[in-house]
Amino acid sequence: MKPLLLDVSATDWNLPPKETYREKQIRDWVLKRFVSSYDEMTDLPAPLRSDLASRFRLRAAEPVKVQGSEDTTRKFLWKLGDGSMVESVLIPATLGTSGNRSTRLTLCVSSQVGCAYGCRFCASGIDGWRRNLTAGEIVGQVIEAARIAGRRPDNLVFMGMGEPLANLPNLLQALDLLISPSGIGMGARHITISTSGLAPQIEELAHHPLQFRLALSLHAASDEIRNKIMPVNKRYPLARLLEACDAFVRAKHQQIFFEYILLAGINDTPEQARLLAQHARRLHAKVNLIPYNKVEGLPYERPPETAIRIFCQTLLKGGVRATVRREKGHDIDAACGQLRLKELHQEPRSSD
Length: 352
Ligand code: SAH
Ligand code: SF4
Hints:
Number of strands: 12
Distance between the termini: 31 Å
Oligomer: single chain
Bound molecules: S-adenosyl-L-homocysteine, iron/sulfur cluster
Largest sheet: 10 strands, mixed
CATH topology of the largest domain: TIM Barrel
Radius of gyration: 21 Å
CATH class of the largest domain: Alpha Beta
């Protein structure tokens, strides 16, 4: 299979000598104007376009399914060059008051095909890990979604399928294409990387110059409970993990987020809320509580609304910034890995 244009360095594009400006032209077509074919690069000579086309694939992903929900959250199931499938979710949010409204688009992207980490509650890990996404495939999700939406997303979150920190070299290469002014040109602070807790990589990122944001998928505030739902905790227990986060916060002078899915009867007790508040105070972290999105075949449920409210109140009373995230894609399986899982297992779908 031909490599993706974005996965090889521009020197391998073999542009005509003395025409170095061609590199910027090509990058602009791909990364700023989101074209879907070489033919659209109208300021390039036809022989150059066909030479590039003969050697490099332009599109990383093609939509095999686009689902929209009533509130216009859209979910994309992409087919990659090798037939693998990954997902992205595009979530609009309206800001401002009437007369001065604007819509912010947040795109949630995948970093791997499948996931090796096997968190018990998550659909992405059910079929295991297949491969890392290349930088071009990560950025390709943004390009394809931007073309469909008619504009570049404002925010990016690595909360789709896969563990981004287990694919660090490709992630960093993708961040460069996303953030650099000669790339897509997104603000680094509008990009959030979510991790299940790979302590050594968190420490490595602490010293990386880019100012992206970090979200830690904590989901339990004691080793006893975290071990039961997140196998990664046996490798990097809470003390080790929180120390790595501490190093990150100190090096970056930046607030981090704790993601905490609420699972009825598992991690929603007052004791967990109290411990979570302790960890959050120590790291000055903001807590996002996420009511669980039911995954078919898994035994977990979201707690009743009152239990969610009480858990949040305990954090607030403990001096912690906490909000309950009301994800908008509930009706289209918008939690990570769910759409692909249905497609792979060929289940009947209710809302095509
Ligand atoms: N592997 C990384 C990033 C992808 S998961 C990580 O775990 O952080 C992105 C977020 O979605 C994580 O916080 C994850 O725990 C959460 N998630 C997974 N399954 C979910 C579900 N069924 N309902 C709600 N959130 C879910
Ligand atoms: Fe992998 Fe994240 Fe899902 Fe855990 S929650 S299985 S790390 S994608």
